[in-house]
Design a protein that fits this description.
alpha+beta, 12% strand, four-stranded mixed beta sheet
């Protein structure tokens, strides 16, 4: 019984410790600016670089305009991705039509969007 209680306590600490990572205030500022400036990221649920990019934003990801390209996950999004004629994932597209392919540094995204 003591082992079960100890295991439950350890699991509780692990669970609490696995919450969303704290977001650097600059990251949140960049994410909000990217959203406001019309930047968007095309990606797919199975794309490791896309998932890494999302994770880098932490909770600030909610401000990013994201288009899911996997047709099994989002059929409408997949149509947008085909129409966008993408070369790979992730693809960042900016209001002026410029694109960046691959996982990007926050500062590069901010500069490209004019944040």
């Amino acid at each position: 019984m003591k082992k079960l209680i100890s295991l439950l306590i350890v699991c509780a600490f692990v669970f609490v410790g696995c919450g969303s990572p704290e977001v650097d205030p600059r990251t949140e500022e960049i994410a909000k600016c990217l959203g406001e400036k019309g930047a968007k990221m095309y990606g797919a649920v199975w794309c490791g670089h896309c998932n890494s990019q999302k994770k880098g934003f932490g909770d600030a990801w909610e401000y990013i305009n994201y288009i899911e390209c996997d047709p099994q996950t989002d059929k409408e999004g997949a149509i947008k991705c085909v129409e966008a004629d993408l070369e790979g994932f992730p693809t960042w597209e900016f209001a002026n039509g410029d694109r960046l392919l691959g996982r990007q540094n926050m500062e590069v995204l901010a500069e490209k969007a004019g944040c």
